[in-house]
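Researcher: Structure for this, please.
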Amino acid sequence: MYITCLDLEGVLVPEIWIAFAEATGIEELKKTTRDEPDYDKLMRYRLQILKEHGLGLKEIQDTIATIDPMPGAKEFLDELRSLCQVIIISDTFSQFATPLMKKLGWPTIFCNSLEVADNGEITGFKMRCEKSKLTTVKALQSIGYDTIASGDSFNDLGMIGASKAGFLFKSTEQIKKDYPQYPAFDTYDELMAAIKAELNK
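Model: Predicted structure, token format:
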């Protein structure tokens, strides 16, 4: 029995923080988990920049409302969900992800939550668990599932490495070079073929 675990940003939808950086003109917000492996450090950095610019949840949600899934993402996800169970495991936050899940047909997502003040300022964040992607994959395996995992960034490497089959998708040249043991794909057709091959073993 298989469950496929997918990253969200960079795999199914564009990077939210990059879109917000472009909308606001704040270049520093373009830094993502592709650039900074330490997610806690990255989020503290982002929240400090938001505070400096007086930006809060509403401004980010206004940008998210303009984001659509990557071309072909919903069709890929629909087909994959017809073949096996799928969980999106993301380090994003429920306040960001919900509008995007609607556009993707309400797949299951495990993510984190933001702490937001009454005035809309994002004051902190609550991670669901330590090393959430790797921890979730191991938990699924502990209840009898084999996992297939795919993602694009440093924070996906744990779940990719721990899964029965793991694939990089739309990753950076540096990550592909540093982790040649993981097959790397750039189109949904390639990723689907690799997942189907694993499911049919």
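Researcher: Any notable elements?
Model: The mean pLDDT is 95. The beta strands are 2-6, 85-93, 108-116, 122-126, 146-151, 165-169, 184-185.
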